[in-house]
Amino acid sequence: MKEFEDIPVRRSELRRRRLAILAVVVLLLSAVAVPQAFKNKHHHYPFFPTATKPVPMIELRGMTLQLHSYWEGIPFEQYVKEIAQSGANTICLSIAAYQENCSSSSLFIEYRKVPSLHRLEKLIRLAHKLGLRVVLMPIVLLEDPGPGEWRGKIVPLKPEHWWEDYENYILFYAQLAQQTKVEVLIIGSELVSLEDQTQHWRTLIRKVRNVYKGKLSYSASWDHYEQIEWWKDLDIIGMTVYYDLVGDKKPTLKVLMEAWKPIKERILEWQRKIGKPIMFTEVGWPNQVGCAKEPWNYYINPDKPDPIGQANCFEAFFRTWHNVPEVAGILIWEWRNHPKQTGGPNDTSYVPIGKPAMKVIQRYFSAGKKNRTATTKRTTLTLSKIN
After folding, report:
1. What is the pTM of this model?
2. What pLDDT is stored for residue 15 in this prediction?
């Protein structure tokens, strides 16, 4: 959020070797070897069945868990269990690769900031065991950003170098996603300045489909989804929802509901042209005064909690999008990911635990469960391809 290749010993081969060595280092530090099937690009896994009808409303009701550390002391397993008990039927696992700043041309995996492959695989299998579907979302973060920089402004000095790294980063996790039968893989998030490079994205999508047989999506920014020309190469339209819903008005529920009407109309009119189901990939408001105006800004008023305002934002969102058949999924940003995040009405983060917002989320997630009892079985996941 707001927050490795193949030419004989030439530059790309050297880069391949460097990144391969990096991956080995990560594995050694985690004291785990990659399973043989993960290494074998030609290993075949069962295809997920394809539905014959359009996706029912809110097929995926999910919570996002950021996996931001290698440290075994962070109880990610506990958080997966909590999500399974929250009313959700889906978990989105977010992991990151880093680059120094927006002009950098190299990506790297910082082993201290990702779980070991062994642990990640175990987390996915645990989620499946608990009846959750899994969405895997690899993102890019900046390690030392300049003023105003974030991943939506990435313009690498050597674009071809950057794309080599990015392709191999996504393919690395695509193989893991296939190995562990992840239901949906998000191939990028909010890379606004790079979204016009259509051929690179289509090449990446083709390569990913060679190794991963689940559903593919991309998480676009709420203000930049219409400009993307390669949506039809994917299965699901992904987008965030960090809209200004109030302007200069007070954030009453009535005001929020009215604000959603033209937004909903525009999204659905555009969606009919693309013909793909929508997944809202980041649905969240920090528990802060002003969250309805700048929901992406979790520093807007970090000392001024507004639990009712946060709850009203969720209420207006669900009233607007509940029972809309074009919506294939909703992913709430975010679940707690560190022992210090205890939740509660005075916690000004996005985490809904212990706040009125959680009751709103659970009410609508439960309503979806009652209406679509068959969709709670993980093995029945069949997000339709609407051509």
Report:
1. 0.83
2. 47
